[in-house]
């Protein structure tokens, strides 16, 4: 057999390069190579050997570390210019250090024309070699691609971490596709590597490459410190390998990356375990910040959230409306074809009594599958899901049809100052929103299965009143028939006898209907047809005698504070009682007051409102978001009933509904009744499973409503 002359082979290869570039199929070959200034394991300087290794692998882009220019130890060579000539590639050089009369740094070789290049120096944590990063832009298939290389501190963990933070900050606004190749001087268990993984995929792992990817030292590789990272958006790793060679003290790592894929495929390729690990870690960090209110000190949570948003390049702003009290807003921009959705959480928590807890309330200790901490359920747990959703949408999500707004507010637990301040001063940032999701959902986990998912679409409104009766004072030994106390008691007695009218709101009717299948007969049929059933006096009596149902059907009154004389033998000239009235959505306080006055039937009794009344309101369930929540929840939890749950308590949804926003209390956090006791109580906790699964369930809903 006749051998093909070598020259012909070369010609064919050259033609192949000119006629059909290697990247025509959108698959790029990328290499990272610490060349040890061209000095091999035999201690000899030989750039040709390095070039041979590169030429053999035919990469399109190469990140090189430890490159000299004009340095005495390497005979004053301009190493990158020589390598570029030997490999027929373009180059960029980043001199990080002056050394022996020349420069020393990192470099890039590119088969594509280099459109632009940027060299950035890193700040140092302490006295150490200066490091930096080199970033170039090339065009692949009419799409811009950013390629970066760096070489981190070889001595100190915290130095590498500090450099990585700077790298991520510089790259925060770079749009994918983005590839970063590096000698991190850090193995996968190290903190710098871990931080890189919060933003990037690792080609070695993602392509399920054979072997351990060990790249140093070259003669007996024992460490994986040379890495190829990429933005998972628009890039997929096909394969990766290490190249055996003694031309340097490292061996190169090579990967084939497919660039420019259709974005819609990405959602299915999210590396969930990685995000879920991250969610648990961030949950713990968040719970360790003490924002007990009073005094609140929410500026600390705002800074914590800002750090994370900055790291991912998510636009955000803190509003410190008074010292230590701060709100934070972050935004992912959509194309504006739909109105925004707000993810609202309060960042303060109620106070905790450490002595009554099994663990320190701000330790975020994990025990038996639960993360303990004040705020775990109310509501840093939900806030965390909101945060993870922002990160996921930024990194993995499809293009958005609407803005997704993260809003973290101060002081919900005491005076709503945070939200009131935002609405009064910064409403322009969010008031055109269509939807808002926040706390208030009420879900039931029973025997390990999700049974009820209650979406809060309405809350009752507190309307607190003080009744004051006045009358003739005197000595207790000579009774006064219509004394202040006697009048008050007669009035209270009439109030107790008063059955406030039953009013069946559509959301409540739906609730009874939805939970009917969970009941036994005859309750099942009665709930299914609640409007009709309530006409039966016996049924009405039995239903309203149950606390969990009564408040859903009417305005309620609880007598709470009482006062009269301070002495047993003194008839007071005034007696008072406070009543906690809760009005149904849509009720008018004036009309209630009128009805109450008639019931009391004593014009001498004065009635005063003693709280700031906030008109009760509700949101329709006839929305795309409600259907989506219902549909998704049923898919994830086939036994769950999805329903509307009106809260007896109050949430900030009430404030935002006044702006015309559809506000729901909902989160995929499923609790057992004993978990709920921790809310405003002791040993508040959220299960690790909930954080992990919730991250995914919440993201998927927000993603789908924002398509
Ligand atoms: Zn709350």
Distance between the termini: 62 Å
Q: How many helix segments?
A: 21
- Judging from the principal axes of the Cα atoms, what is the shape? elongated
The major beta sheet can be summarized as: 6 strands, mixed
Percentage beta strand: 25-35%
Q: Count the strands? A: 30
The overall pLDDT average reads: 91
What is the CATH class of the largest domain?
Answer: Alpha Beta
- The number of distinct structural domains comes to 3
Report the structural category.
alpha+beta
For the largest beta sheet, what order do the strands appear in spatially? Answer: 3-4-2-1-12-11
The radius of gyration computed from the alpha-carbon positions, rounded to a whole number of angstroms, is: 34 Å
Q: Can you say what the CATH homologous superfamily of the largest domain is? A: Endonuclease/exonuclease/phosphatase
Give the % helix: 25-40%
What is the CATH architecture assignment of the largest domain? Answer: 4-Layer Sandwich
Any ligands, ions or cofactors bound here, and which?
A: zinc ion
Query: How is the CATH topology of the largest domain named?
Result: Deoxyribonuclease I, Chain A
Low-confidence segments, given as residue ranges, are: 1-25, 263-267
């Amino acid at each position: 057999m006749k051998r093909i002359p070598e020259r012909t082979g070369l010609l064919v290869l050259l033609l192949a390069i000119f006629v059909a570039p290697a990247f025509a199929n959108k698959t790029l070959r990328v290499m990272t190579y610490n060349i040890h200034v061209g000095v091999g394991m035999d201690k000899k300087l030989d750039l040709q050997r390095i070039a041979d290794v590169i030429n053999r692998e035919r990469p399109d882009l190469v990140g090189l570390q430890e490159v000299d220019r004009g340095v005495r130890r390497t005979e004053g060579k301009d190493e990158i210019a020589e390598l570029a000539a030997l490999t027929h590639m373009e180059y960029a050089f980043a001199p990080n250090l002056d050394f022996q009369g020349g420069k020393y740094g990192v470099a890039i070789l590119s088969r594509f024309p280099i459109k632009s290049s940027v060299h950035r120096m890193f700040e140092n944590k302490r006295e150490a070699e200066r490091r930096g990063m080199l970033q170039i832009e090339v065009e692949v298939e009419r799409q811009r691609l950013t390629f970066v290389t760096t070489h981190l501190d070889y001595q100190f963990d915290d130095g590498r971490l500090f450099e990585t933070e700077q790298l991520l900050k510089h790259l925060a606004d770079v749009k994918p596709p983005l590839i970063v190749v590096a000698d991190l001087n850090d193995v996968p268990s190290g903190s710098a590597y871990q931080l890189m993984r919060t933003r990037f995929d690792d080609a070695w792992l993602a392509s399920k490459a054979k072997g351990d990817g060990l790249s140093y030292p070259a003669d007996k590789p024992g460490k994986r410190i040379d890495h190829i990272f990429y933005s998972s958006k628009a890039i997929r790793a096909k394969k990766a390998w290490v190249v055996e060679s003694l031309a340097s003290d490292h061996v190169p790592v090579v990967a084939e990356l497919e660039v420019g894929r259709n974005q819609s495929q990405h959602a299915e390729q999210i590396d969930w375990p990685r995000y879920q690990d991250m969610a648990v870690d961030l949950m713990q960090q968040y719970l360790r910040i003490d924002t007990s209110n009073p005094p609140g000190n929410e500026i600390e949570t705002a800074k914590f959230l800002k750090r994370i948003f900055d790291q991912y390049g998510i636009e955000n702003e803190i509003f410190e409306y008074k010292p230590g009290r701060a709100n934070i807003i972050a935004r992912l921009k959509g194309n504006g074809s739909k109105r925004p959705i707000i993810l609202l959480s309060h960042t303060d928590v109620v106070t905790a009594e450490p002595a009554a807890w099994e663990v320190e309330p701000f330790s975020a200790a994990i025990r038996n599958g639960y993360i303990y901490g004040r705020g775990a359920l109310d509501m840093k747990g939900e806030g965390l899901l909101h945060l993870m959703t922002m990160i996921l949408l930024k990194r993995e999500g499809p293009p958005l049809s609407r803005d997704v707004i993260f809003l973290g507010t101060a002081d919900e637990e005491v005076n709503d100052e945070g939200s009131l301040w935002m609405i009064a001063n910064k409403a322009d940032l969010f008031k055109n929103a269509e939807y808002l999701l926040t706390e208030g959902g009420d879900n039931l986990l029973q025997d390990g299965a999700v049974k009820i998912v209650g979406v809060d679409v309405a809350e009752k409104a507190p309307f607190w009143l003080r009744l004051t009766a006045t009358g003739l004072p005197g000595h207790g030994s000579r009774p006064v028939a219509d004394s202040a106390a006697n009048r008050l008691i007669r009035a209270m007695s009439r109030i107790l006898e008063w059955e406030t009218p039953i009013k069946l709101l559509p959301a409540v009717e739906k609730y009874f209907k939805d939970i009917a299948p969970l009941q036994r007969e005859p309750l099942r049929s009665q709930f299914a047809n609640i409007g009709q059933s309530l006409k039966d006096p016996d049924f009405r009596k039995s239903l309203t005698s149950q606390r969990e149902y009564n408040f859903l059907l009417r305005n309620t009154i609880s007598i709470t504070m009482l006062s009269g004389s301070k002495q047993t033998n003194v008839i007071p000239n005034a007696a008072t009682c406070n009543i906690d009235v809760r009005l149904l959505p849509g009720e008018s306080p004036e009309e209630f007051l009128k009805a109450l006055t008639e019931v009391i039937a004593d014009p001498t009794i004065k009635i005063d409102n003693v709280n700031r009344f906030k008109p009760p309101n509700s949101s329709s369930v006839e929305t795309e978001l409600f259907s989506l929540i219902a549909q998704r929840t049923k898919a994830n939890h086939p036994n769950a009933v999805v329903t509307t749950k009106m809260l007896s308590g109050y949430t900030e949804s009430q404030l935002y509904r006044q702006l015309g926003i559809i506000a729901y209390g909902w989160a995929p956090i499923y609790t057992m009744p004993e978990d709920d006791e921790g809310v405003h109580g002791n040993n508040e906790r959220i299960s690790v499973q909930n954080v992990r699964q919730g991250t995914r369930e919440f993201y998927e809903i927000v993603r789908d409503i924002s398509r």
